[in-house]
Structures are given as structure tokens and as C-alpha cells.
Amino acid sequence: MRKKLKLIITLILTLSSSLFFAQNHEISGTITTETGIPLEFATILVKGSKTSTTSDALGKFKISSAVNNPTLIISLFGYQTREIVAKDHFVDIQLVLENNSLDEIVVVGSRNPKKSKLETAVPVDVVNLAKIRNTTPQTTTNDILTYLIPSFNSNRQSSADGTEHIDPASLRGLGPDQVLVLINGKRRHTTSLVNYQNTVGNGSVGTDLSAIPASAIKRIEVLRDGAAAQYGSDAIAGVINLVLKDNAGLEANATYGSTSRDDGQTTNLNLNYGTKIGNKGGFINFTGEFNDRQKTNRSQNHNLIIFDQSAQGNFFAYEYADDPAQSRQIDDNLLAQNGLKRDDFNFQIGDAKIQNIQGFFNASIPLNDQIEFYASGGVSHRKGTGYGFRRLPSETESVVASIFPFGFQPELNSVVTDLSSSFGFKFKFGEWKLDLSNTIGENKFVYDVSNTNNFSLGDASPTEFKAGNHSFLQNTVNADISRLYKDIFSGLNVAFGAEYRYEKYKIVPGEEASYMNGGAQSFPGFSPLNEVNEDRNSVGVYADVEADITDKFLVGIAGRYEDYTDFGNTINGKLSLRYKILDNLFVRGAISSGFRAPSLHQQYFNNIATDVVDGELLNSGIFRNDSEVAKQLGIPKLKEETSRNYSFGVVFSPTKQLHITADYYHIRIDNRIILTGNLGNDAYGEPVPELRNLFAQYGAQTGRFFTNAINTTTNGLDVVIDYDLNAGRGKLNLSLLYNYNNNQVDNQLNNIPSIFIGQEDVYYGPQERSLIESNTPKHKGTFAVNYNIAKWNFLLRNTYFGEVVRDGFPFGGIQRHNGKVVTDLTIAYKITPKLQFALGANNLFDVFPDKQIYENSYFGVFKYAPVQMGTTGAYYFGRMSFSL
């Protein structure tokens, strides 16, 4: 009986433990690298449940499962995610370093769905923004690319009207409108703003990268090669493709920073949430971002005007004297007694105040095994405040003394609204793929000018004016068909398709007081004479064939035909080759023709604005090419820019972790569209009576026009070296990036009207020429060290901005700004696996461009030119990042 009882108890205990184990199957193990180094903070998740844990400092973990032989998902930033079936109570798991970003499959550069960056015949940079954004000092897409892509440059501008509110950017020193921007492979619309204030990209119309929140971007692909034959107009310098996030989970980020001069304070808050839809890979991802950037002031003389009090108690204004001994000390008490302070008289020169609220989404929903619906889009609402030139009390033709007895500095307030939407269907018909899509976007720029007056209205003048607005809408319909033939040669990819694009450009007048009789000082409003409501459409067809003739030899051929209702048609082609000398060494190259259609903005933008002409503030007009004044002067009608692009490169990967690429390029652009200089004075700054009289009929003293005036040649070299390695218990990444870029404008101008023969330096002068040839660095390089160990991440990056040369003609001089090195430093610490805190600096050592020579500084006001690293100086920040 005792033996039977013992047996029964044993059976009960065994059954109980089995049942208990079935409910609480405990698994322990270790997580290490391939070389046996323990990995802390690796996430271990029981597949199909919410049960998860993390590894400790020795790489050890324990986790329970309600099922036998559970599948574990192991993930850690920087390593490939693994799935294993835990058949035993103990598992030993090794994680493999993620492939270098150079190995990622890319969308641009090749329509072959299997091609990685290292396999394309043309150079493509990949910036994995989702992984680096928490540690990089920069917060906007423009600023991030400036420090990560050596041939990319972007600078904030000062006292440049609307250009202050949308930073112009360039690739390979070419214009902002000579690089095509895509989102998820679909064409992005440009802004409605024309850069016309003699800044980088003068006369061009770019794409506003700041309208897309950086927190919504998964990665950025930069195709550094002419691609008009593949993607159409604007792709002369290359293509930037922004790939939106598609992840599930929650990410939140908060950044606050300030400059070393206690201005330019920035607050950036963003939230990203994604979730899966169905069980076939569907998802939807949302992003919201708020960014507030306060103004900076980098003027040479903050206290431009000083005050004294006469015996009668009246104020008199004195302009700032070059010799401090001749200046009178400002009496703060005296100012306070009259309700004033020093800041009321500062000359504000620096970054504009910007506030941006944005929302974006990205979605993909498989409807069945053959059909997938996708969509993306967003809204950006930006408010900006910039500053014009200060009007002194002595400028009696500008200042209504009863309103502004001490002069004034006008403020230009903008509201920029950007809307976009893209949706489509992807179909599978056997081995064929069809992508049908519609992409629409609109950019609207509304102007208000305040703290100013319309002198012609005298004492009755308002001090704030609604100055009008301009907008640009673009709608693109695409049909793309492709197929990969795996059995032809060593792989043959065929793609072809068609595109229809509609564009509309509008200028809407402001209120009458803003433009009448000279208009509001600094920014006269748009008048009914400036009103524009123009549109056009274009049709394009393309074919793109890429064949791996052998395992070593790749050939790509592309051709495109486009027809525009406003200027005609064009045909362009591209041939690209890649040959593998060894498995880890190959050469690549391409030759292509390209074009850029004149934008509607360049054809129809016109206004009257206050500009500096030969050191004097004058009303300068920009006139349409189809205007009466253009016809009288013989200004020719605009036509497309044409280009020829040649590139040759070498790719070498000595090890899996080390990649080296070097690519030479040559770009020839004919009939490049520029904005002329201010016509109305001769090369010596003296008025030309017949021109002054002609422009006076249209309310201006000088005039400017868009014209295909120049041909340019660009030669350059890009070098990218990227090395991943284990360093002790951590992971080290070293990267070296370098770009040499040389732009030259032909000496001979195209189609110059006979009236300007002998006036070439005014029609297209040294200042305009220097903006293309020498205003961006010929040499730019970055060396970055990123070290990740346990809970810590360290980023140290040095960026060299080479010498630039600015020509201040006609009222300034030639100045060389020496090359400078900017240092970025970030230290990040993971408080928990989901919470990280970072401290860091952009431009740690407070490096500025060389101070401007006096004659280039608008009489000592502009202390620094907005070149190279810009005029912000050191910027320090703190950031908290959370993920779930």
C-alpha cells in the first residue's frame, strides 16, 4: 500500500510539474557577438506574445513561455535580428553585425529590385536617418545632409526676403532646381519661391526639404549622377529620394538647444507611431513634429544709432560713426524714460525666426497576393519672421518721421503651407509588376510686412501690410511596368512607363497700400500688374533596361521622351556600365544627356522689391520674359537647359566591414537659366538714363530678367570610405567622406541683347558669376568616429569646409574666406533599453567664416557672410529619446 501511495504521489508531482512547465516554460541563455563578446540590452521577445526581456551586462537572460519550443526573436541596434526555436532550456545565441549601409537595397540609380548600393553602376549614398537621428546634432533634413553628404551644401540666408524662410540647397555646386527630390520614389513638388536676392541658387526654384519632418524619414538615398533619362526634368546633378518610415511601435523625441551667444534657441518635439495591418506585411505609420527656432543676430554694429537730448528735451538721431571716439554713449536711462531700450535700435542680421508644425503618414495595405494599395503624404505649416535693411532717420525719402522718428527695421512675416498626397496600386501579373500612382502637392507662400511704412501715404501710412502671396501646384500621374528575367544572361531587368504632369503657378496681389506709389518699405506688395495665373502640362515616356551580361559585367540603357506645352519636347538617353575585376573590386561608369525645363516661376515671376544696387537702396523690378519691357530690350524667350554627364568610379571592399568608393564626374550644362544683374546702371555704377526712364514706367529704377545666358562646366571627385569593426566590447564605425568640386562659367554669354553689348559685367557680372563658381567650397571633407559600447554611444565628427571666394561687385570687393573645420560631438546614454539621453554640440569650438571686409558688409553691418558653415556659431543641445 505504501509503495502504491508513493507511486501515485510521484505521478501527481510529475504531472503537476509538467503542467506547470507547459504554462511557464523557462528558458535562459546568453547573447554574444560572433567573436564571443557579451551583448547587453539585446531584446528577447517570445513570438506571438507580449512577453519580452533584455540581456544583462554579461549577455545573460531568462524568459518564460506558455508553450513548448517557443520561437524567440532577438534584436539589438547595429546587429541583424534573429529568430530561433528554443528546443532546450538553455540557448547560446550569436548576433551578426548588420550589413554596412552601402549594402542596402536602393530605389534610385537602378530599377532592378535586387540591386544594392555596391552593385549599382552609378554612385548612391545611403543615410540611415532612423538610426542616426537620435545622436546627430542637427535636426532638419537640410542640416543633416550638409554634414553627411560631402557634395551637398545648404546655408541659411539673412535679409533675403522669402529665401530666409526656405534654405536653398545644392548638390555638386549646381542649382537647387538641378537636383530632383523624390519621396518613396515619387516626384516631389518644388516650392513657389524664387531665390532672387543674390544668394546661393540665385534665380532658381528648389524643393523645400524642411517641409518633410526628419522624424518621418527612414533613410535618404542620394544618387550622385545625372538621371534625367530615368526620372525626367531637374535630375541634372542627381536625385535625392526620401524613404518614409514603415516600422511598428512608438518613438518620441525632444531636443532643446541654444547657441553660444544665447540666441537661436531651438525646440524640437516629434512623435512617430506605426502599427501593422493584417498578416501580409501591411502597415500604417504616422509622424507629428513641432520645431521652433528663435532668431539670431550676427550684425557688425548692434547699436547702429545713438541718441542725445537737446536743451528742449527733444530726441535727435545720430548715425553710428566708424570712429568710436566720434560716437556718443547711449544713455539707457534716457531711453527708458521715453519707453525705449537699446534693442529697439539694433540692426537685426542673422537667422530668421521659424516655427514649423508638421504631420506625415506612410501606409501600405496588401489587398490580396496580387494587389497592394499604398499611400503617403502630409502637411507642413511654417511661420517665419525675417528682417530687412534698417532705415535710418536721415533717409528722409523712406522714413515717415511722425511714425518712426528714430528710423525702423522692417520685418517680413511669412506663412508657408505645404500639402502633399501620393497614392497608388501595385499589381502582380505573373512575373510582371505594374505600379499606378497619383502624386499631388502644393506650396503656398503668404507675405505680411510689418514695422514699416509706405512713405507716399505720409502720416496716414499703416505700419503693417498684407503683401500678397504666391503658390505652386503639381499633379503627377505615373504608370510603371517592370519585370526581372532571372534566366536571361545572369539577370535582365526591363522597366518602362509613362508620366503625365500638370503644373499651376499663381501670384495674388496684396492690399493696395502695400504696393501703391513705391509700396511698403523693404518689401512692396504684389500689385495687380504682378498677378499671375498660369499652367502647363507635360507627357513623358521612358524605357530602362539593365542586364547582367555575365556575373561580372552589367550594362544599363535608359531613354526618355518628354513634351511640354510651353516649350516643346526633348529626348534624352543614358548608358551605364559596371565590371567586376574581382569579387571585391569593380569599376563603374555612365554617360548621359539631360535637361531641365524652365519652371513656370522663371517664366512668370515678377515683382518690384527694394534691393541694394551699387550701395544704394533702389526699387528693382523683376520682369517677365513675355512683358513689354522685355520685348523692348530684346530679352529672348526661355528654353530648356541641356546637359551632358560623364562619370567613372571604383568600388573596393577589402573586407566585409570596409568599403571604399571613388567617383569622378564631369557635367556640362548649356543654356543655363540665370537671373541677370540689376540693369539700369553701367559697370561703374552710373545710371543709364534710357534704361532708368524705361523702368520708371513700371515703378522701378532698375530691372532684372530670367534668361538662358550661360554655359557651365563642373568637374569633381567623390570619395567615401566606411569601416565597421569591433573595438574591445564595443562597436566602432569610422567614415571618411571627401568631395572636390569645380564649377566654371564660360566667358562668352549666350544671346545677349545688342543694347547690353559692352555691359556684360552688369548683365551677368562678377557677383553673379562668383555665386556659381566660388560661393560653395571646392573642397569639403568629413571624418567621423562613432563608438557604441554597452549603454554609451559617442560621436565625434570633424567637417572641413574649404575656401570660398565672394565678389561684392559692383559696390564691394573680392574676398577669400579661408577653409575651416567644424567639430561635432555627441555623448548618448541609454538609461533603459527604451530611453536614451544625449548631450552634444554642433560646431563645438564656435568656428565662423572669416569676417567680411568692410566694403562687402553693407557699411559694416554684415559681420559674416552666410558661407561655408553659416553664421550660427556653436550650438549646444540636449535630447531625450523614447521608443516602445
From TrEMBL:
Segments forming domain TonB-dependent receptor plug: 117-239
A Pfam family per the record: CarbopepD_reg_2
Membrane topology listed for this record: Multi-pass membrane protein
Any single GO CC term annotated in Swiss-Prot or TrEMBL for this entry: cell outer membrane
Subcellular location: Cell outer membrane
Keywords for this protein: Cell outer membrane, Membrane, Receptor, Signal, TonB box, Transmembrane, Transmembrane beta strand, Transport
Listed transmembrane segments: none
Main location: membrane
Family, similarity comment: Belongs to the TonB-dependent receptor family.
Signal peptide start and end residues: 1-22
Annotated TonB-dependent receptor-like beta-barrel domain residues: 418-844
Domain of life of the native organism: Bacteria
Phylogenetic placement of the source organism: Bacteria, Pseudomonadati, Bacteroidota, Flavobacteriia, Flavobacteriales
Official protein name in the record: TonB-dependent receptor
Organism listed in the record: Flavobacterium panici
Keyword hit for Cell cycle: no
Alphabetized InterPro entries for the sequence: Beta-barrel_TonB, Beta-barrel_TonB_sf, CarboxyPept-like_regulatory, Plug_dom, Plug_dom_sf, TonB-dep_rcpt-like
